[in-house]
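Much of our argument rests on the idea that a fold can be written as discrete symbols. Part of our work consisted of pairing the sequence of a single chain with a tokenised description of its backbone. The amino acid sequence and the backbone structure tokens for this protein are reproduced below.
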Amino acid sequence: MPAVAALLLAGCGGGSSEDEVTTTPASSGDRAQAGAGQKSGSAAPGKTSNSPQSKTGSAQAQAPDAASPQGKGQKHGQRVTIPKGAPEQAPTPAQVASATVADMTLESPAITPSAEGPGRLPATYTCGGENSWPTLRWTGVPAGTAELALFAMNMQPVEGKLFVDWAVAGLDPGLQEIEAGKLPRGAVIGTNGFGKRGYSICPSGAGEIYMFAVYALPTSLSPKPGFDARELRKEVLGVSGNVGLLAALYAR
């Protein structure tokens, strides 16, 4: 998974409530969203630097790798092009420390994992095809979970903020999968970044990397149909520390 995921999840899978996300690629893998549990260590004796560049590099190198299903280890894949414009602020030590660890697993039979980076998302699951979600399966839902929530998000921000392509809440904690294009009973659909209620993956360029995420919530948030996906994400991050992540690359 691309290294940018570690910093993304400080905003989309971690404990931060901010909408802004950092897109500077780090040397270790994830919004968002991301090895896990790594803590900042002290510099080697006699090798210190006070320059802003060295501090930023240190923060990037020590960002948690939540992209691994167990939140451990490092993965190296293709880099994501950095958007033009002023560089965004690096995550604070508190954001890095609170970044969500992927302690649940999330997978899809439609997205084949690749040793070189995210698996490919077939065009049928984008606006170039049926524009409906693929089958998603997960394991590791902790005991005491009240409900589940699913999100699909751009790995690249739009106007400096996380873009949510799909949000579904109110899912029964006993569920272990959601079928392609089908919603289980009780599912509540939110309004995505396109201003539409439902799912839509439709990159403006040649392609993009997306993050699917399933969250286990200890309390029910009871959102109303058509809820704002980004606002619900803030609420989810405030109560959930359990998430499963799946990155997928769509290229035309």
Notes: The mean pLDDT is 73.
